[in-house]
Amino acid sequence: MGLVNGLPAHVLLVHFVVVLVPLTALALTVGAIWPSAARRMGVVLPLLALVTLASVPLATGAGEWLEEHVGDNALVRRHAELGDGLLPWALGLFALSALVWWAARRTAPAGPAASDGTRWSALPVRAAAVVLSLVVAAGAVVDVYRIGDSGAKAAWHDGFSKTATGQDADDR
C-alpha cells in the first residue's frame, strides 16, 4: 500500500495500531480479571482483537513501502526492525481475547459453595489466563510505545528547528 490522498499510507494506518493495541490490551486485562466484564463485552472482545491483529500487517506493509521511498538511515532501519516485532504481540492479544471470551461464555457465575467444585478447580487455569493476559497486554503496549518513539525519531530527527523561525517568531 503506497499513498492515500497524497500521504504515505503508513502515516495514517499507524494510528489504528496506536489506538487499537492499547485498547485491546485494556479490554483483555479487564476481561481476564473480571469474567463478568468479559461476559458483558461478549463477542466484541475477540472482534476488537481481530481488527487489531489485522491492522498490524497493514501498517507494517505500508511501512515497508515507505521505507523504500525514504533515505536509508539507522533510525529508519531501527524503526522497521522494531515494527516487525509487533505481530506476535498482536497475535497473543487475539488468542488470549478469544480464550477469555470463550471461557466467559462457558462458565456461568457460581457461588463459592458450588457443589460441583467447578469454580475452584478452574482457579489455576483462570489465574494463568490473568497472568498471561497481563504479560501480553503489557508487552504489546510497551512494544507499541517503543515502535512509535523510534518512528517519531526517524521522522522528525532533522525536520524542525529548536528555535522559532519565520514571521510567528517575530510576534512573540
TrEMBL record:
<dbReference type="Pfam" id="PF09990">
    <property type="entry name" value="DUF2231"/>
</dbReference>
<keyword id="KW-0812">Transmembrane</keyword>
<feature type="transmembrane region" description="Helical">
    <location>
        <begin position="86"/>
        <end position="104"/>
    </location>
</feature>
<feature type="transmembrane region" description="Helical">
    <location>
        <begin position="125"/>
        <end position="147"/>
    </location>
</feature>
<keyword id="KW-1133">Transmembrane helix</keyword>
<dbReference type="InterPro" id="IPR019251">
    <property type="entry name" value="DUF2231_TM"/>
</dbReference>
<feature type="transmembrane region" description="Helical">
    <location>
        <begin position="12"/>
        <end position="34"/>
    </location>
</feature>
<feature type="transmembrane region" description="Helical">
    <location>
        <begin position="43"/>
        <end position="66"/>
    </location>
</feature>
<feature type="domain" description="DUF2231">
    <location>
        <begin position="6"/>
        <end position="161"/>
    </location>
</feature>
<keyword id="KW-0472">Membrane</keyword>
<protein>
    <recommendedName>
        <fullName>DUF2231 domain-containing protein</fullName>
    </recommendedName>
</protein>
